[in-house]
Structure prediction request, 595 residues.
Amino acid sequence: MSARNWVVAFLALLALGPLVLPEFHITLLNYIGLYALVALGLVLLTGVGGLTSFGQAAFVGIGAYTSAYLTTTEGLPDFVAWVGVSPWLTLPAAILLTVAVAAVLGLLTLRLSGHYLPLGTIAWGMSLYFLFGNVSFLGGHTGVSGIPAISLFGVELKDGRYFYYLIWLMVLAALWATQNLLDSREGRAIRALKGGAVMAEAMGVDTARSKLVIFLIAAAFAAVSGWLYAHLQRFVNPTPFGLHIGIEYLFMAVIGGAGHVWGALLGAGLITILKQWLQDLLPRIFGASGNFEIIVFGLLMIFVLHRARDGLWPVIRRLAPLRGARRKVESAGPLGRRTKPAAGSVVLEVKDAVKKFGGLTANNHMSLSVRAGEILALIGPNGAGKSTLFNLITGVDPPTAGEVHFLGGRVDGLASREIARRGMSRTFQHVRLLATMSVLENVAIGAHLRGGGGVMAAALRLERAEEGRLLAEAARQIERVGLAEHVFDAAGSLALGQQRTVEIARALAADPSLLLLDEPAAGLRYLEKQALAELLGRLRDEGMGILLVEHDMDFVMGLADRVVVMEFGEKIAEGLPEEVQGNPDVIEAYLGGVD
Prediction:
């Protein structure tokens, strides 16, 4: 059965639900929809972006309390009072206030990394929960009652059966928008976060912005869920917005499949139904009342983390694979290209670069230059400081002293993405691809700076023409490096040598003036190295400057125009390949001396 048919069947069953199901099941489905909205935000935040948050319940609370306060409080100032006239007007107010609070918290919290980030979300989640219960104008722990019902086309949605359609319309809209976002340039930037900030920034992605974007989207989804909850219950108190509920939302996302949009729906449904069932069953088994379901959830989480770390949705997909049409890359017009520097002109100049890590000097007064239409090889024993110099040039690490000039402008001290914007692209010593994404999508990340579609345009599918051009460019670069048959394969399924070639294609997708390759031939077979040498030769003939780090001397000496040799962070030789090969200092560095 095709994926489209499954979706149509799901929508049909969803539409028929209130017509055939009893009231209890409708109520259960309403809450599954509310929880799925929050879990969907966590799919973006945690599963896709790799950022763990325990505080989403607090954002649900802000959305709920905003609408409750505006629709029940009399004597509000005129500039606010009109918002409370209709619950529909309080929806944008709830979203805006929640997003504003999330922006402040995100700017503070998202600077943290490791275990400090989830601890930070716990801190503000608890703070907001206690704020709801201790502020008198929000009703304290008693809460706010008398919240008006929502009217739609003159019909008051007081009955859960009517409200059901509104909830699920919101859920489906959020699912559609999220899927659109992830299948776009902005979505690839978000998914690139899991590949590490260094890789993403090198491709021109503003990682701080991408993190904040998904944090705000997750908060907005939570606010919509809170608004719906307030007008479904028509009563709000702090209890549903505590830290324990925030943990439950995270359970839903992780168990359903935190990296998958439909995993949010699966997790919300499974946890909600299981919770209800266990609350009825366990007291009868143990002969006493209590929160025994929490114990079961804890054991379930441990089991899922052991057996299905990606959640249950991928398991279901493997057991019942969906038949879908193979995606095609539509032919599209070319992207704009940057003006190439004149052949022979200096594109990169490093002057007396020094990099110290505490008492260790990794680079000591290193100088080199690369011209357009030239391949410069940077060689040296392991630990010579070659990769450190790459990081200085590309903005990963600022130099302790010295200067780096690119295309006539000084770039030392600039962020990697700003240097990439000027026309410098790179690969990495240790392959940095997103293993579960296709080769096409990985390479398209390299073209990030060649597009301009924003988040809203992506969510509403308004940038499809640009997206088509970006994917077509990625496909052209994949064909250029000889991997056309692997366009739709998962990058992690390729051999190491092929993955390195994918990295080169990704770097080329940026249309660079200077290409930095860190050990591109490592892991390649003889014929693959020959193909790579031919590719680099063509790029040189097209006027591109190439800085190459490589340990395969046969590969280097047969390809490079000039060679720079490093040892212990210093340059010990520079010249033509044949000159360097006979240099006594080079022989000493590599072989330990000359007989």
